[in-house]
Amino acid sequence: MNFTSMNEQIETGSESTKVGNASDPEKKVVVVLNDKIDVGRLMNACAHLAMGFGASRGSAQRSELLLLDYKDASGDSHSHISGLSLIVLRANSNQLRVLRQKAREANITCIDFLSSMTEGSYRDQLERTRCTEPENLDYFGVLLFGAAEQLRPITRKYSLFRA
Questions:
Q1: Which residues pair with 67 in a beta bridge?
Q2: What is the pLDDT of residue 62?
Q3: What is the mean pLDDT of each run of 10 residues along the chain (163 residues)?
Q4: Strands (E), 7-132
Q5: Domain count of the chain?
Q6: Which of 14, 75, 92, 148 sits most deeply, having the most CB atoms within 10 A of its CB?
């Protein structure tokens, strides 16, 4: 990611870091995780959700992520950390299924992770998912990305995730 290709500046100490587009509505990321699954498996699911979401962004869309280059006092760089809000909420599998459907109907970017995507090789996981009827899919998590005012109506009923 080329930080100088972004067109709004935020002051960070004595330097400026270019980020985002000031004319875009406020964007955010919301991750909703299945509170019935153990935390270790949820961390794995969350990592897959984040990787899938990042991979889904084309180079023209990456500026929406407000990826920043944080520098510590020594000048060492901690780059590609988003300046966007990222909220983690909790729900059960059926609520995640409904949330995913609402997001798709509203044309909101949505990435999901299923129990069928765990254990065995990726080939086993693909086959297991392919053979599972939609109503039988067990959701571990859903990641949503969009304007805050677009996400709020479909996520406001969920509580913050607590381990």
A1: 82
A2: 84
A3: 39 43 70 97 97 90 90 95 94 97 97 97 97 97 96 97 89
A4: 8-12, 15-19, 27-34, 67-71, 77-82, 85-91, 109-114
A5: 1
A6: 148
Q: Name the nearest CA neighbour of 54 among 94, 32, 86.
A: 86
| pLDDT value, residue 60 | 81
Whether the Cβ atoms of residue 150 and residue 27 lie closer than 8 Å to each other: no
Indicate which CATH number applies to the domain containing 126: 3.40.1490.10
* Residue type for position 10: I
The three-state secondary structure class of 48 is helix
Which of 121, 106, 118 lies closest to 34, judged by CA?
A: 118
Q: Which two tokens stand for residue 150?
A: 């677009």
- Say if CB 2 and CB 59 are below 8 A apart: no
Containing structural domain, residue 11: 3-160
Per-residue pLDDT, 58: 86
